[in-house]
Give the backbone structure.
Amino acid sequence: MYTAMALIIVSVILLAIVSLVAASKAARQRELALLKQKRQERLRVEACGETVLFFANNLGYIARSVISKDEISQLIDNGISPEELAITIAKRIEQAEGLILGYQVFDHIKFNVKLPLDSRQRHLYIVGKSGSGKTNLMRTMIFQDMLLGNGLGVIAPEQEMIFEEILPYVPDHRIDDVILFDPSDPNCPSFNPLHLDEGEDVDVKVDEVLTIFSRIISSNSGPRMEELLRQALYALIGRPGVTLLDIERLLDRTDPSFRSYIINSCKDPQQAHFWQNVYPSFPKDAHLPITNRLGRFLRPKVICNILCNPKQSLNFRQVMDEGKILLFNLSDGILGEQNSQLLGQLVVSKFQLAVMSRAQMPKESRRQFFLYVDEFQTFTGTAATSYEKILSRARKYKLGLILAHQQTGQIPTQLLKEILGNVSTSICFLVSREDASKFSKELITTQNGEIINIPEEEILRLKVGQCWCKIGQQTFLMHTYLADQHPDHNRVEYIVQKARFNYGSSCNLIAVSESELVQGTTYQDKAKKSNTSVKSSKQTLKKSPN
């Protein structure tokens, strides 16, 4: 009996021990599972934090405007995975307004990099070797601007940029907005440097034109030559029908009739005094350096046709206000190197004057306009001050500048400082080691909470289409999209004809000899011939290709 009882007790104790062991094991498993769950949760939260940190460090300039910290915290608290969080933020950025520059890849997720309007208004600077991807990026931006209905201008020293990279891809709804400045076309829109558009300041205009044309008469001609050219510009600028050819008429010492007309119609006593009393006291040949060198500059028919039309002049302010697409083909193969440079500088100067004339316009009426200048060092020279003024002051007048070239050594040091100090966005493709050293100091990013410079070697290892992009205070590696290139030459020809039909001027109207001007020949007969030529051009305009 006692033996049976003992066995029962032992069995009960063994069962209890087994139960305790099982319960302990179960508790331990639950504890391990809980620890694993906590560890997974910690890893999830940490991974989400890394995702947030990536977007904050790279695209915080736009991410902060599309998703708040509180919303991100709520998503993380609700158990979102790092991948889902990355996709959510990327989709928000995708929906944000802005121009697509390229893309980034994070954790196998590809998403677009966008540049908001506010950043675009603070200008953009692109630098990189030939073939590194600059032109492709500019073309991608230009196409988007055209598609969005934005007004834009493009100044290019190579005609391929205009005829192969832009014109074939003009959207149908923007074809009538295209104004093509192509010196090889006799019907190229004219550009009279002495024409004063509404709202332009005469003093600023004289200074800008004088600075640029000082290159023609040579910067070492002395103060007398500069003063003489300045007085001539003050006397002529803003007068209906005058052109650069009239400078010789004004300075002519053998026939004072035109100068007498200017004096009699002059409303400024100081100008009248100069031409009545001061100029006659100059040596008889004092004007020859100006007239001879200006004459050589205007001798090529293509230059004279563009700059010496007394009836018409391209209105840059109107182009900006109406949101047109203004394309300048300033190929030196057509114009010659110096002429191309001088025309480009005049164009940049004219844009600067047009922008400043918006000062009297209500802010809400100022339409956004973007000016792209490819290989802009070609058009620097005496126009460097125009760039500086646009960079520092044009934002409030709604002009965004996009400058591109190959290396920093191509431009003056002071202009480079102005660019780096004023632009909001800098994009650096593959550059020389010297430039990599410069940009390593400019391209700053954040890693693990520390602010560091992008190493030179990281810049020198860039592949075609890769670039370091700095927007505001954030720098990141970006890939540009390869633009699809299948130019339709029939379409290009159609757009060229439409531009000529809508905005071109006849060369007959402006092919006027100096002798005809001196003799006071009227332009009525030539205008009639011009109208006939334009009508003929309109009648032969082809239909748009399918």
